[in-house]
Amino acid sequence: MITRQVIQGNIKMHNNYVYPNGTIHRLIHQSDVLKKNPLHDPVQRALHVYLPHGKNRKHHLPLLVDLAGYGNSGPGHTSWKAFGENLPERLDRLISEAHMPPVVVAFPDCYTCLGGNQYINSAGTGRYADYLIEEIVPLVEQEFNCGGLGQRGVFGKSSGGFGALWHGMHYPDFWSAIASCAGDAAFEIVYLPDIYAAAQTLTDYDLSITHFIASTRTTSRLSQQDRGCLMVCAMAATYDPVYNHGIKNEPVIRLPIDLKNGRLIPERWQNWLNHDPAIIVTERLEKLRQLKGIWLECGRHDQFNLQFGTYRISDALTQAGIKHVYEEFNGGHSQIDHRLDHFLPWLAKTIIT
Question: Is 64 within 8 Å of 88 (Cβ atoms)?
Answer without folding.
Answer: no
